[in-house]
Amino acid sequence: MNKEQFDKLLSLILPGIDPIDVTDKSAMCSQYVMYMINRTASMFEWQGLPETIPQRFIELTLQLRGYCAIAKHENDLYAFYGGLGGEPDVYYMPTVFTVANPALNYSANLRIGEECAVIPNDTLYMGLIPLFTRYATMLSENLVSLRVAMINSRITDLISASDDRTLKSAKQYLEDVETGKLGVISTNEFLEGIKTAPYGSDGHYNTITSLIELHQYYKASWYNDIGLNANYNMKRESISRGESQLNNDALLPLVDDMLNNRKIAAEQVNEMFGTEISVKLSSSWEDNIEEIDAELDALKNGGNDNPDNDPDNNDPDNPDNVGG
């Protein structure tokens, strides 16, 4: 297969690729959220689910909607999304789950705890969309600012012309330079008819640098909120192992809450319907928890409580010396 044949085959596989309009903040925000959901969809691993309940539906519904319910229909268990209501119980929690599923031609008002088990994503049934939308909005706004700064950085001089003829000649000169041609000035009138003023400065570079740092900060904070360690060093210098681990404690609360709610709900489903469903952390989240637990065990077993006083931290050959 030659290069021309390969390019033709590739064009059949790939869709048309055009530049993205980063100024469309609504579209950019949606893309950020969807790509993050693609990541968090693998946060938990469900085991023992019936064939009629795909893990994908459970996790997408929990993360996008905040809750779902497991109920039996015609001797099969299904996961449903519906409305919560009924007369509140003694702890002001809903007692009825209303489901309407056109594909199964099934609708009912199910008593929670008797006919169905509700699985919340988190304690407040919020899901992840409010959190994700906040970060996606800030990243989209920053991306627009970064685009403007990048475009402005292309301008090194401002050119003013005294008449239309000179203006036309100046535009042609700039177009020739942009396309890679040698710009030629034919008359002195052109030089005498235009004025230039320097525009570019170190301020453009500093602005772009600050916007890139802000972008990385938002992304790192977003990952930290969902339990992934994405340290961002604002110091612009070497940091010690202790500093690199300062945010470990902040990684766990939301993930722990989500996992705990899933485990409690799985036990309720098992008790109601005789299943053996279980759930645990998966993928990078499981690895991250194991690393944090190993670090805590090392400290409990006589490790140095103050990593900054560890002489190994100053050793450039020590792989734990982050950023050195």
Account of the 3D structure:
It is a single chain. With 324 residues, the chain is of the alpha+beta class. It contains ten helices and ten strands. A three-stranded antiparallel β-sheet has the order 3-2-7. A hairpin with a 2-residue loop joins strand 2 and strand 3. The longest helix has 26 residues, at 248-273.
Summarize the structure.
With 324 residues, the chain is α+β, with helices and mostly antiparallel strands.
Question: Topology of this structure?
Answer:
Elements: H1 3-13, H2 25-40, E1 44-47, H3 55-65, E2 67-73, E3 76-80, E4 83-85, E5 96-101, E6 106-111, E7 116-120, H4 129-152, E8 157-161, H5 164-178, H6 188-193, E9 194-198, H7 202-225, H8 241-244, H9 248-273, E10 278-281, H10 283-300
Antiparallel strand pairs: 1-10, 2-3, 2-7, 4-5, 5-6, 8-9
Helix pairs in contact: 2-4, 4-7
Primary descriptors:
single chain, 324 residues, alpha+beta, 10 helices, elongated
Radius of gyration: 29 Å
Structural class: alpha+beta
Rounded to the nearest angstrom, the distance between the terminal CA atoms is 47 Å
Which descriptor suits the 3D outline? elongated
What's the main sheet like? 3 strands, antiparallel
Unreliable parts: 319-324
- Count of helical stretches: 10
Mean pLDDT figure: 82
Helix share, percent: 40-55%
Q: Can you count the beta strands?
A: 10
Give the neighbour order of strands across the main sheet.
3-2-7
Q: In percent, how much strand structure appears in the residues?
A: 15-25%
